Amino acid sequence: EESGHDEQAPPSANDHSLVVASSTKQGSDQKEDRMENLEKGHKRLEERIQKLEETERRQDELRKHLEKKLELVTSEEDKEKQALKEEVMKLRANGQPVFGTIFRKSLADVIAGNDLLGLGNYGAVYKAELKTTQTVYAVKVIVPRKAGNIQEEMKAERKVLEEMKALERLNSDYIVAYKLSWPGNVSGDHPLFSAPKSPSTHDSKIEEGSVSVSDQPTTTATQERSSSPRKVYFMVMELCPMSLAHWCEKTRESGRQVTMLVIMRLLHHVLKGLDFIHNRKINHGDIHLWNILLGCDDGQDKRPPPGHPLKCRAKLCDFGGLSSACAAEDASGQNTTARQQESLKKDMEAFRAVVETLCREECEELPLPVLKSADAKKIKEAVFGERLDKEPKASTYMTRLEELRNKEELDL
Fold first, then answer.
1. Which residues, listed in sequence order, are joined to residue 292 by a DSSP beta bridge?
2. Which residues pair with 129 in a beta bridge?
3. Cβ(103)–Cβ(131) under 8 Å?
4. What pLDDT digit, counting tens, does each position of 35-66 carry?
5. The dihedral sign for the CA sequence 224, 225, 227, 230
6. Rounded to the nearest 5°, which phi and psi values hold at 181?
7. Of 27, 97, 333, 356, which has the fewest Cβ atoms less than 10 A away?
């Protein structure tokens, strides 16, 4: 009996074979596509690895080149320093004058030749050119003050020797480089003791760096003169173009506005210098704008441009007020550790004063660069905020500056 519906014929074996073949072909094509994609991905990965290896190779070559260049520069500096030391030792052993032999001018000619860089409590700093290499240095002539009694004079002389000993082991890009020093005797009627009380520059202000200037400089001119020999110390230092105080003044005069990056970078350098000496149990003791010098990375004779000294380093100088852990006790028997901690706090308080000075728009005592109020506020809040650090540390302030740098996307 017919149902009225066409019955569908069951698939034949041939149809089944076609379906299987089609499915197999489709699977094969997909497999080939996957293999092709894998090969392409593998090739791209290999190319990327090659590029990374090439970049790494170039960076390694550049690093080796820079290291070699640095080694050559360091080697030349060390050779010059060693040669200077040997010559000084030889001259002193033979009883010959040192200053006038190694430098192009004698001390008297340097004093007469308008080469005074600045004055401090312990003497003066002059610019002097080496005969052999024509390198220009800052030479600090230290005259221990006569105190009227032997104990005070010995204390003053010990302070000088402490400074020289400390500087000899402070090798940092953020500390004015110490070269060598030697003691000498100068006649009491030498021009050194009648030198002018201020540098004879064009505007009667201190234009050069490598020296600190105290608020009330005490010069040797006020001391009693006689023909009897006076003991002095000569300290040869790196010559930096100018102090931070003078850069501030020149920037203000130029009318240029200072960016937050510039101030942050300078403060970061100062903190690096402080962190370096504090880690070696040495405290500066006299941090202020005159004791922070700017040394250009591309040449010692180039002065940093007003407003944007981005190619310069801020360096600490004049450690005449330093305290260190050289002695176990002071005269009263007080342990050095307590005094050291107190001196460290004073350094950080002085740094805070530097921040406050650089981050305010005007100062009656010293013309300063104009910094936007908003930027100044950001710096002060980032470093100090409303926190009163019981034990302030340079490393802590550096971390806070770096956090602000990351937030503002700046490169210190």
1. 316
2. 136
3. yes
4. 888 888 888 888 888 888 888 888 888 877 76
5. positive
6. -150, 160
7. 333
SS (HEC) of 129-176: EECCCCCEEEEEEECCCCCCCHHHHHHHHHHHHHHHHHHHCCCCCCEC
Residue type, 9: A
The encoded tokens of residue 248 equal 């501030």
The sign of the dihedral angle between the CA atoms of 368, 370, 375, 377 is: positive
pTM: 0.69
- 204 pLDDT above the threshold of 50: no
Give the tokens for residue 302.
């180039």
Hey, which residues does 257 pair with through a beta bridge? Answer: 370
Cα 61 to chain centroid distance, Å, stands at 27
What is the C-alpha to C-alpha distance for residues 248 and 376, in angstroms, rounded to an integer?
15
- What DSSP letter does each residue of 222-253 carry, written as one string? GSPP-SSEEEEEEEEEE--SEEHHHHHHHHHH
> Do 106 and 187 meet the contact criterion of CB atoms below 8 Å apart?
no
Which strand (E) or helix (H) includes residue 266? helix 260-278
Q: Going by C-beta distance under 8 Å and a sequence separation of 6 or more, which residues neighbour residue 6?
A: none
**Beta bridge pairs of residue 296:** 312
As beta bridge partners, residue 237 has 138, 178
